[in-house]
Amino acid sequence: MDRKAALAELQRSTFDLLIIGGGITGSGVAREAARRGLRVALVEARDFAAGTSSRSTKLIHGGLRYLKERDFRLVREAVVERMRLLRLAPHLVRPEWFVFPVYRGDPDPLWQLRIGLWLYDRYAGRDLGTLRHRTLRPDQVREVEPLLRQEGLVGAGMYVDAVTDDARLTATVARSAVAAGAVIANHAEVVAFLKDGSGQVTGVRVRDALDGEATFEVRARKVLNATGPWADHVRRLDDPGARRLLRLTKGIHIAFPRERLPIRQAVTMRGPDGRIMFAVPRDRFAYAGTTDTVYQDDPARPRPEAADVRYVLEAVRRNFPSAGVGPDDVISAWAGLRPLIDPGDTRDPSAISRDYELYWSPSGLVTVAGGKLTAYKAMARAIVDKVFPETAGAPVDEEPLPGGQRPPTDADLQAAASRTGLPVDEVRWLARHFGDEYERVLGYLRPGDLEAGPRAARVRAAARYAAAEEMACTLGDVLWRRVPEALWSEDNGRGVAAEAAAAMGEVLGWDEARRDAEVSAYLSQVQEMHAWREDY
């Protein structure tokens, strides 16, 4: 992924499809369209997955609760896509057992949960194998998840969904789109539309966010607005009077050291108001969420507020009363926005469909609103079918994502550790994030890296790789998304920020002042993540 070359190509060519937005939807459409032989461009105002696509519950799941809404098509599609991603991206999408406890007075009785889980398994088909659901008695629940509240416990369902690293998944899809022929650039913001004499969109004017106010034009036959929470803003660039499509809702999550919430598997739990939430283990950590509240502020700056954190902590304490988790145990928090289709009424946010729709503006601009991370491949197929019907009927994309060809064995990891001197746990971390491409990342280790310690050495190598091959342009691109130390370390990456900036600087030619500025900006972002503590 060469940004300089991409920017030059964007200005040289006329494309069949220009996509605005480098989240999972835009990146997925870019890959699908390029694989069909279309000439594809994509521009992203910040970084790949900088918005909603890095701020989710990090699940690839069918959405069991949507069965209650009788949205069977959405659930079936999501379950089928979950099984597909387990095959095609085993390093990024992993099966995870979930325990769904049922208590006296819950809105969904155990018999109803059994029916839902039976449907869930049926949609998954034969590929599910031994991962089929089972129903647990209260004493069995205590055995599998002893931290769960016992008072009023009727039983539980135990079923399989999947967990993911949403930011790495998105970046990997974007990179695979480039491999298929798409021309992609991040930190490239659309500031205006180009139109012909009849008012039809023919392209966009783009500002290079890394080069001050420099702008350039990109021409295309069709333009797709896949900007998630920014969709209405982009539509108003085309037509200032465009009606609002979205109702944004905010969801926040908080993470703890696993020792403070030592759950054995993921738990589907209920919040203080009865809404479905999750507690999920992730290596040495566990996280919980999410909220679902109407959001009307700047889409670029959602953040956890004290009331949000209080709500999630109350849910955790209610479901795991013996854990005693409190605000001092929270190591990180993140907030994301759901770009839900506005139903035009005042219904509760949790009752709004997570499905997606396409909208055609009079100018020809196509906007996608709504959608789910899990079903991004199915969405991409349907979108390209509708925007380019002449390509409909193309074979379903079953090619593994980069890193998913051959899961490395323990022997592979041990051999790599012996060869490089990096501890095997750090090599394993790389394999869990980069799959069978971990060897390429290890190729960016430099003499002397290990002198700074194993963690710093691993971060240095991954930062160089991200800058050289994944279009990481800022320290935040690396430590929030490519190598997510910001969320998954007790110090939020503070201890390796300077190391990562120095490594990136080697690749990108940063001087000392630029490195210092990148570290300062990153530390400010981390501080902002914890701003909720001031009002707690």
Distance between the termini: 42 Å
Radius of gyration: 23 Å
Report the CATH topology name of the largest domain.
Answer: D-Amino Acid Oxidase, Chain A, domain 2
**Distinct helical segment count:** 16
The residue-averaged pLDDT reads 94
Q: Quickly give the structural class.
A: alpha+beta
CATH architecture of the largest domain: 2-Layer Sandwich
Weakly predicted, low-confidence segments: none
The total of beta strands comes to: 18
Share of helix among residues? Answer: 25-40%
Going by CATH, the homologous superfamily of the largest domain would be D-Amino Acid Oxidase, subunit A, domain 2
User: Class of the largest domain, according to the CATH hierarchy?
Assistant: Alpha Beta
Indicate the overall shape: globular
Taken together, the total number of domains comes to: 3
Proportion of residues in extended strands: 15-25%
